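Hey, can you fold this one?
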Amino acid sequence: MNTHTPFARSAMKIYQDGLIIDGDAATLLTEAATERFTPAELAPATSPWDRAHLARQRASVAFAEPDYINHYPFRNPAYDDRLLQLESFGDLGDVCSRNNDYDPHWTYPTRDGRAEKRIWHLGSDFSQLKAARDQINAQPGQVVRIAHLDTGYDPTHHTFPDTIIRHDLERNFIEGEAPDSAVDPRSGGATNQPGHGTGTLSILAGKRIRLDEAGFDDSLGLAEHIEIIPIRIARSVVLFRSRAFVQAMEYIIRLHDDPVTRCHVVTMSMGGLASNAWADVVNEAYERGIFIVSAAGNNFGRATPRTLVYPARFGRVTAACGVTFDGSPYYQPDAPVSLMQGNFGPRRLMDRSIAAFTPNVPWAKIGCDHVVSLAGAGTSAATPQVAAAAALYRLKYFDELAALPGWQQVEATRHALFTSARKAIAPGFDNDVRLYFGNGVLKAADALAIPPAAALLHKTPADVVAWPILSILAGFVTLETMPRPENEEEQMMFETEVQQLIQLSPRLQELLDNEEKQPDDLSPAEQRIFLDTLLAIPEASLRLKAFIQSVTR
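Sure. Predicted structure:
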């Protein structure tokens, strides 16, 4: 629950000194051209949030936050160690023929006790995307545009849908790269996870391909009355800067004013830490009617937190969780640390979530122009399925949705997807559909049977990052004697930093029972442990620690 509403922000942000800075636009531009926002002589050990607090001391700066390099857990079984270790893709040898079968750690189709190779996720018993595609009879001039935010694409792969790519609109927001090309240069190395965007694009809009072993000769994804705007925001799905998402969304919002460039759907198969800069662009996109779906995130056993990442955690974004072939969650309670699985929860945030199918779904393999692995995985693979369903709904009710105010266009689409979603889960998970799947399991064709109805729609409150640290601190002093942040902006900076630390800390996740507990649910002893844990985190800012200690000492 948000403790306050977002304060008014300028339409422009400055990216300097490792920060995302918001304030008076005209003054910021002038100052950014001539000087730094933080002292050049700062010690290297100064935390990013302490730098942000220093920048906020300037009269022109209302809010600042670190431009973090987000770490997104992902490792696709389709890529074996030999592929990851290649320095380039010039000499693949037999790598393309390896690791293309189902991942045996998860369920998959079988016949007579043996694996049955097929493109199963499109079927009527699963996402219904094939049936939904077949229902669409769009009129001339009706085109739905989808922005694909990822690591780019491989233009040589046989699934690449070149005829529906808006090359004139594609963009690259990675510093030092060509700004008008979203091509993935295919850099190798274990930390780069090459080809993530090629894989997700093949699920979203992979063109017709013949896969004899799978008995498949059809389009993997959308094709008719669809345009794709590829936007490269990361060299690697594992590492990407916060500002790249902000810049990409600002660009998409600018495109919205012109009907021939207007984006209706955004799909992003990655995520990261809490960011109020992210909240700003999400709020603006929602008001304009842009449907955003983002991956719920991945984790590895109990080594990394398993709750929703941002921006999927925002209320105005639809979170894509994972459901496996047999209807189980993409989660194994006793999984080894090496096994990637999907994020979900906390329960209070699952009301804007839906599950789609992963793992063991098709995944176009970068550098292997004809290869589609059956080991596609991660909530990354679920996300484009939800985006495809949203785009098909937009096509089905193109004129009806266009007549609605912006936010109602988003909510009408979500109402159809959420209402039609299958409310079932495999045995062994306490029949807890909400915790693992949110609104249920995607049924794209059933969603098309639910027309927009404005009377049924409710506006989702504006998103803001706000973890109520003051609620805990209030238990240690009287209301009259408790120190206060300098202003609302500083309070938001503290709350954003605390939320980030919770996302990063397994110990804080444990204390909060995977964030199922709110501050008021903690006993006084647990509240003290929570604060002591925050104070012991080396990455926490000195400013935050000093504020906590001013209350608790």
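Residues 359 and 377 are 4 Å apart (CA to CA). Let me know if you want another pass with a different chain boundary.
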